[in-house]
Amino acid sequence: MSKTLIVYYSLFQNTKKLALEISEQTGGTVIELIPEKKYSFDYNTAAKEVRSEISRGYCPKLISGNESIEDYETIFIGSPNWFKTVAPPVMSFLRQHDFSGKTVIPFCTHGGGGFGQIEKDIANECSGATMLSGLAVNGVGKPEEIINWLKISGVQL
Fold first, then answer.
1. How many Å apart are CA 145 and CA 129, to the nearest integer?
2. Which domains can be identified in the chain, with CATH numbers?
């Protein structure tokens, strides 16, 4: 079993494409976080739902992403930048697991907002973990950009 895990949530597939490219480069196992109740595919409706969930600190129940992370040493955690933080399904995942002794590497996709508070928010939920520099990509990202980031981060390829 690979000691690397790539966990992500993606509504419009940008974060998924980035997660799959990271898996391609690292050989890591991929887990898509799937909430019990799906968000609307209409951007404006989804934005209203998400803004409400984030403001309430709501963490949706996951139907995928509850698997044990015990056997993994390195965990990439990916999310779209939603109102400067992680998507609520990612927060659900973070709060369900113990990251002590793990190496955690955040990544996100955005439409111009960069990381916002994502790195800080993930670090706050992963006490006891070693945090490495993350990657924020506008859109999907190019393979060479991801390879360079992995090398700079010190991730074994």
1. 25
2. 4-153 (3.40.50.360)
